[in-house]
Amino acid sequence: MHVRIIQAHPDPGSFNGALSRAATQALSRDGHTVSLQDLYASGFDPVEKGAHYTNRQDKVAFVPLAEQRHAWQSGSVPADVLTEIAELERADLLVLQFPLWWHGPPAMLKGWFDRVFLSGGLYTSRVRYDAGYFRGRRALLSVTTGAPESAFGPGARGGDFATMLWPLHYSLHYLGFTVLPPFAACGVQGHGYSYEAEDTQKTRLRSVLAAWGAHVASAETLPALPFPGWQDWDAAGQPLRTEHAARG
């Protein structure tokens, strides 16, 4: 399979960068191909704005979704966005690699979603969820945190991963991806801030890199996270099956 990694960390020498390299090595050993987009290093502009569109439908008011639809229909999608879409269309698996900042992804990654997943192109009123544009492709989140694993869980002081990652997971499901269980590398702290001795942390993080490599290399066999599809809603969009409603 071909794997596309989107990395969202300002320092390529960070542990997030190490995780991307570990994934690339593990996947390449198994005969897969990998391409990496380092959003910070590439200078990707995450801010959706009128200046990106050379053939505006409305020269006065900027309505992002309307301009995205117009750009798709008129063949004037911004070049950097077209490149991202082409890479996604090549990929069998999408990996999002990022640190958890303020209980969510960095703004850079959110901006990548805002600009790349074009209204009227990569989703419409009917082309979404289990009938989405990327149907048949998989997506996987790899997240780092500063706090140790013991700090996370339902009601825990660090928050609940299922809750904090839900917006990204559901957005990927919205686009048609089969969403796989995430990988979390906890207790990743800079020099002088770790709750462990430096040697202990280095040893533990080496084992984390190995575990992540094994996790991403097994992506083709990982079970999908459960999400509702069109058959689970009534005409008003309300759930027909209570088990999906509870999971949502």
UniProtKB/TrEMBL annotation:
<feature type="domain" description="Flavodoxin-like fold">
    <location>
        <begin position="1"/>
        <end position="193"/>
    </location>
</feature>
<dbReference type="InterPro" id="IPR029039">
    <property type="entry name" value="Flavoprotein-like_sf"/>
</dbReference>
<dbReference type="InterPro" id="IPR003680">
    <property type="entry name" value="Flavodoxin_fold"/>
</dbReference>
<keyword id="KW-0560">Oxidoreductase</keyword>
<comment type="similarity">
    <text>Belongs to the NAD(P)H dehydrogenase (quinone) family.</text>
</comment>
<dbReference type="InterPro" id="IPR051545">
    <property type="entry name" value="NAD(P)H_dehydrogenase_qn"/>
</dbReference>
<dbReference type="Pfam" id="PF02525">
    <property type="entry name" value="Flavodoxin_2"/>
</dbReference>
<dbReference type="GO" id="GO:0005829">
    <property type="term" value="C:cytosol"/>
</dbReference>
<dbReference type="GO" id="GO:0003955">
    <property type="term" value="F:NAD(P)H dehydrogenase (quinone) activity"/>
</dbReference>
<protein>
    <submittedName>
        <fullName>NAD(P)H dehydrogenase (Quinone)</fullName>
    </submittedName>
</protein>
